[in-house]
């Protein structure tokens, strides 16, 4: 069984966010414990398992090293890239059946892949007690994100986001920190970082799902529906977003960096 490691939201190796993609044969999913063990063995922020469905569409599940998740953008992008590279799909949009409903991945002429994802519902909330201390920075305000279940925390500047060295043991939930870009000519509109130690991801390099919340957050402030975010992790990556009501297109490049054979089959 082939596994490919793909860097998503980047056009060069060793940047963006790596995801492992494991295509499975048609039929039932393997036992969940086997899926979990494979994800733990690979130890990337996400491992994607994809299998063909009878109607020409695909089933898709995502696992961190410790749990299954409801939505993952970069591993969906990586999966669409892998299926095209392996000749399993053509140039048409690919439809994935997931825990977050049907998601579409559409190739664009410039080589990017655009994901059609559900927009997170933002609700203002009080800054949780201890959050500023855990992050090591003042927090201007927070938003809850409904079913996405991450906290969006606004910081005072791009410098503050980039300089964070949070106390990960003190973070009790998944947090996306964000601020506006300092330089209008930088090529992006806002920056972010994403910390999720509670699900086995101390810092995620580039998080497509978080941009389903960051896009409406910054669209409201900047008065535009087309935005580009830069996730300022050590690996870094650009995420292009276009808001359309309750859906958001999240687009980026992907590049394959490693292919291997999984010997421990189900």
TrEMBL record:
Instruction: Give a Pfam family name.
Output: PhzC-PhzF
rRNA processing: present as a keyword of the record? no
Which molecular-function annotations from GO does this UniProt entry contain? isomerase activity
Q: Write down the InterPro entries for this protein, in alphabetical order.
A: Phenazine_PhzF-like
UniProt xrefs under Gene3D superfamilies: Diaminopimelate Epimerase, Chain A, domain 1
Q: Which residues form the active site?
A: 46
Keyword tags: Isomerase
Sorted alphabetically, the Gene Ontology cellular component annotations on this record are: cytoplasm
UniProt keyword Lipid metabolism, yes or no: no
User: Which SUPFAM superfamilies does the UniProt entry name for this protein?
Assistant: Diaminopimelate epimerase-like
- Family of the protein in this entry: Belongs to the PhzF family.
- What name does the UniProt record give this protein? PhzF family phenazine biosynthesis protein
Give the organism, scientific name: Kitasatospora viridis
């Amino acid at each position: 069984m082939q596994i490919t490691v793909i860097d998503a939201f980047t056009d060069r190796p060793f940047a963006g966010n790596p995801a492992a993609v494991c295509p499975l044969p048609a039929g039932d999913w393997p036992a969940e414990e086997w899926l979990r063990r494979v994800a733990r063995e690979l130890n990337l922020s996400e491992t994607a398992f994809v299998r063909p469905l009878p109607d020409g569409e695909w089933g898709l599940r995502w696992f961190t090293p410790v749990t299954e998740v409801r939505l993952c953008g970069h591993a969906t992008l990586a999966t669409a890239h892998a299926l095209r590279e392996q000749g399993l799909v053509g140039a048409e949009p690919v439809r994935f059946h997931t825990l977050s409903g049907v998601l579409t991945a559409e190739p664009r002429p410039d080589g990017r892949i655009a994901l059609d994802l559900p927009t997170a519902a933002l609700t203002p909330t009080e800054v949780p007690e201890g959050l500023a201390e855990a992050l090591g920075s003042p927090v201007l305000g927070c938003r809850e994100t409904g079913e996405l279940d991450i906290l969006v925390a606004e910081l005072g500047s791009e410098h503050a986001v980039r300089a964070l060295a949070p106390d990960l043991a003190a973070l009790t939930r998944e947090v996306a920190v964000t601020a506006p870009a300092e330089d209008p000519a930088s090529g992006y509109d806002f920056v972010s970082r994403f910390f999720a130690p509670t699900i086995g991801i101390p810092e995620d390099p580039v998080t497509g799902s978080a941009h389903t919340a960051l896009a409406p957050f910054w669209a409201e402030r900047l008065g535009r529906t087309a935005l580009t975010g830069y996730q300022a992790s050590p690996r870094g990556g650009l995420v292009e977003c276009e808001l359309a009501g309750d859906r958001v297109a999240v687009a980026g490049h992907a590049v394959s960096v490693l292919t291997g054979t999984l010997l421990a089959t189900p």
